[in-house]
Amino acid sequence: MEETINIEIAIAVLFGSLMLALIGVFMFLMVIIYQKRKIKGIREQQRLIAQYEQAVLKAKVEMREETLKYVGQELHDNVGQVLSLIKLYLSRPDTQQKPDVKHLIDQAITDIRSLSHDLNINRVEQYSLGDFIEQELYKVNKTGVVKISFENNGFCEPASIHDRLMISRIFQECINNILKHAEAKHIFVKLEAAKGCCALSIADDGIGFESASTLKGSGLINIYDRVNLIGGHIEIDSAPGDGTKVLLRIPNE
Questions:
Q1: Alpha helix (H) residue ranges in the chain
Q2: What is the number of alpha carbons within 13 Å of residue 220 lying toward its C-beta?
Q3: CA–CA separation, 140 vs 157, rounded Å?
């Protein structure tokens, strides 16, 4: 009888030890899986941060190129012509032309001051999103190619300066696409505060395009990638002969 009890105790101890060993192995495996997932999550986070930083740097370079292109064009088309007129007036010994020369010199000074302001690449960081959009639309309006309508309702400001830079570049790309391809007569821009986000709408009355085929283009893919990096959402609605509307929703600070 006593021997039977001892056997049962031994079996119970063995079974308990086996269960503890299995629990230990299970816990060990769970720790390993947790560590692997943690390392994978850290690497993914690092990858996203690196991707975001690379996109911000690319946006800065593109905005710098866009600014230099605009300034170069303005120097050639406006300031260059004004200086040529001044030179023409000064080459003539006609004293009655002096008031005109003074006016042209004042105009050249004003244009150069304006261009020096535009050369400030960091102006995106110094102004609100609404102010930046207004300045960009003012430059487009000066060309006389299209008519501009801009509504700015409520306080809309991205969560970070880098997000503002990305949104500003997205806006520039959308406007450039309209000027290059849309053959539009009007551009309608609206910036307004929505629930927990900013809504930026850019529409035109141009020729439009087939959404399904054109959305695969590298330019629009670039826009989609930037929107995803800042945690935003974008909708592009267009049809041939119906113009195009872009609606961008971005996190508000």
A1: 2-74, 80-90, 98-118, 123-126, 129-143, 161-177, 211-214, 218-229
A2: 17
A3: 23
Rounded CA separation 214/168 (Å): 22
Cα(235)–Cα(170) distance, integer angstroms: 13
Residue type, position 98, single letter: K
Please count the other Cβ atoms lying within 10 Å of the Cβ belonging to residue 215. 14
DSSP letter at 95 equals G
| Interacting residues of 179 by C-beta distance below 8 A, sequence separation 6+ | 140, 145, 146
DSSP of 171-216, one letter per residue? HHHHHHHIIIII--SEEEEEEEEETTEEEEEEEE-S----HHHHTT
What distance in Å separates the CA atoms of residue 115 and residue 6, rounded to the nearest whole number? 97
Tens of pLDDT along the chain (253 residues)?
656 766 777 777 777 778 888 888 888 888 888 888 888 888 777 777 777 777 766 776 676 767 667 666 666 666 666 676 667 667 666 555 566 677 777 777 777 776 666 656 566 667 788 888 998 898 888 878 899 999 998 778 776 778 888 888 889 889 988 988 889 999 999 999 877 788 999 999 999 888 766 655 656 788 888 888 888 899 999 888 889 999 999 877 5
Torsion of CA 223, 191, 73, 121, to 10 degrees: -80
